[in-house]
Design goal:
Helix content is 36%, strand content 25%. The chain has 281 residues and is α/β, with parallel strands linked by helices. Bound molecules: adenosine-5'-triphosphate. It is a peripheral membrane protein.
């Protein structure tokens, strides 16, 4: 994790499409859902692209394509400059570990029967031949990086608060030194004050290690804080895509204008007051 290659494009999607074929029922005909309709984007090393939109607009589908969980119906995906054809090739562990994901629910995403140390070491056990001593050392060091003490190594997830669990999920995602972290509504399940702490942690980790994020959210105040670029999705299409400041100050599409008008200014101001990121505009 270093900032040396900042500026290089880590992930790029070109005209990504995803259709779902839904079988017909007794009274309903078969149909095709066009969940993602030709979305293009790119994210440079050390930057954050926020993907915003209301429920059903295709955010999760796009996230599953970017995290190499599902194939696209059409389009091209490049990670670290390499074209990925998830439908045609079995992905090597090396490709799989380039993209990691943190989910919304820190309660559901950690195995309650595993100690924190085992949760953190598991990706190394599965994907690498790093020896046990080294695994432990790396897990201890990662705990410190996410603001948790090494005494937590032998504890179970139920012994932690929601914010601490999300720190553990972030630590696990970083154990394989990924090129890209996809954060799928990572703070929406947390109390507001804890949201601010986790967002600050993400910002600090990014500043320190040059991490690259795709941040999926419906919360504009959070997006305004965390994003460098913003992509707004509406019914599967990217209706707005540009720098955070350009999108927020001069939204072009009528949907974006409505979305922004629906977010009370006070919400944006209050979350900014809780956050300490240096470049929060
Ligand atoms: N497996 C599937 N089969 C059929 N249709 C699907 C499937 N998955 C998603 N869809 C449809 O694709 C569209 C986009 O869904 P998606 O889950 O990507 O939206 P989203 O923006 O992430 O919503 P949410 O925030 O509620 O998760 C929706 O119309 C959804 O019903």
């Amino acid at each position: 994790m270093s900032k040396d290659t900042k500026g290089a494009v880590v992930v790029e999607g070109r005209d990504i499409r995803r259709d779902y074929h839904v079988r017909g029922g007794l009274f309903t005909p078969a149909r095709t859902v066009h969940a993602v309709k030709g979305v293009s984007f790119s994210v440079e090393k050390g930057k954050t692209l926020a993907i915003v939109g209301e429920s059903g607009c295709g955010k999760s589908t796009l996230a599953r394509i970017i995290t190499l969980i599902d194939p696209a119906t059409a389009g091209e995906l490049f990670i670290d400059g390499r074209k990925i054809d998830i439908a045609a090739e079995p992905l090597t562990p090396e490709m799989r570990r380039k993209v990691q994901i943190v989910f919304q629910n820190p309660y559901g995403s950690l195995n309650p029967r595993q100690k924190i140390g085992d949760i953190l070491c598991e990706p190394l056990v599965i994907n690498t031949d790093v020896k046990a001593d080294e695994r432990r050392e790396r897990a201890m060091s990662m705990l410190k990086k996410v603001g948790l003490g090494t005494e937590h190594y032998n504890r179970y997830p139920h012994m932690f608060s929601g914010g601490q669990r999300q720190r553990i999920a972030i630590a696990r995602a970083l154990m394989l030194n990924p090129s890209l972290l996809v954060l799928d509504e990572p703070v929406s399940a947390l109390d507001l004050s804890v949201q601010a702490q986790v967002l600050n942690l993400l910002a600090d980790l990014q500043d320190e290690f040059g991490l690259t994020y795709i941040f999926i959210s419906h919360d504009l105040s959070v997006v305004r804080y965390i994003a460098d670029d913003v992509l707004v999705m509406y019914f599967g299409e990217a209706v707005e895509y540009g720098s955070r400041d350009a999108v927020f100050s001069d939204p072009q599409h009528s949907y974006t204008k409505t979305l922004f008008a629906a977010t009370p200014r006070a919400d944006v101001e209050s979350i900014r007051a809780r956050l300490t990121r240096k470049n929060a505009a």
